[in-house]
Prior knowledge:
With 210 residues, the chain is mostly helical. The chain is built from six helices and four strands.
Amino acid sequence: xxxxxxxxxxxxxxxxxxxxxxxxxxxxxxxxxxxxxxxxxxxxxxxxxxxxxxxxxxxxxxxxxxxxxxxxxxxxxxxxxxxxxxxxxxxxxxxxxxxxxxxxxxxxxxxxxxxxxxxxxxxxxxxxxxxxxxxxxxxxxxxxxxxxxxxxxxxxxxxxxxxxxxxxxxxxxxxxxxxxxxxxxxxxxxxxxxxxxxxxxxxxxxxxxx
Length: 210
């Protein structure tokens, strides 16, 4: 979407000790397919803190309704993850003399993570102007773009198809097998599969549980 809007894109991914680290190879494939040549994979080992099923020894929940409002914030929430990610992006922006950060969060079909909410993104944008040399000197006005924020998974999939994305290259599962097969039962797999069904698009994901 950033490319479609005419931005020169610098891609940033994170190797943060996540159990679904195979998503990084998917990111490399997508970046190459989009013709982006500047792609940093930043190492941040959040396993030192733990506190999440994605970075610690907790089990990833399976076969639950991720949209159940009574389910609370799930154990797959990684403490302050998007705050950390956006801080790295902001630092790179200042070096690049760029002002626009794109993040792919959604506040519609999501698992209740607090750092996917519009209030968080608005607060971070305000903070970015205070926390940086360029912001303090008035030479930059940072903007956080979240084009998927109010889109359902189905709408996101349709937009991706329209942009020429091959979803077979992408990865969503929180608890994949060693060979990268998706579990088919975690919150992320359930939301992904439901999104393809609602979009009327064949799901190219390779699941362990068909």
